[in-house]
Amino acid sequence: MTTVNDTMNTVNEMTNKGFERMTSLGELNLRAFERLASRQMDSINLFMEHGIRVMKLATESKGYNELVKGQVEAAKELSERLMSEARTNISVAGEVRDDYRHWLEKNLAEVGAELRKGAPSAP
Fold first, then answer.
1. Which residues form the domain of 21?
2. Helices 4-60, 64-118: inter-axial angle, 10-degree rounding
């Protein structure tokens, strides 16, 4: 038979563990945001570099044909680098997904174990 103190201790323990879980989820969210924001900045940098390259071409080209050829080459290089970035971003998204899955599986297992431990046994 459980006493009021046992019940209160169980409630306090579950509350503390719930708070710890939410804190770890917040940390996981922060790490995911930092990784994804870093990838976004890398993509922005690609576009900035491309813009600078195209402006440099526009000011330094000796003729129309050289400008167009340079723009085509710059566009080709940008598209190749963007494809590489997209592959990397998909990989990072998969890693973030796996981090969330691991967090969820771990915490669901802990909650299940706590509930089984706290449930009274059938006679």
1. 4-114
2. 180
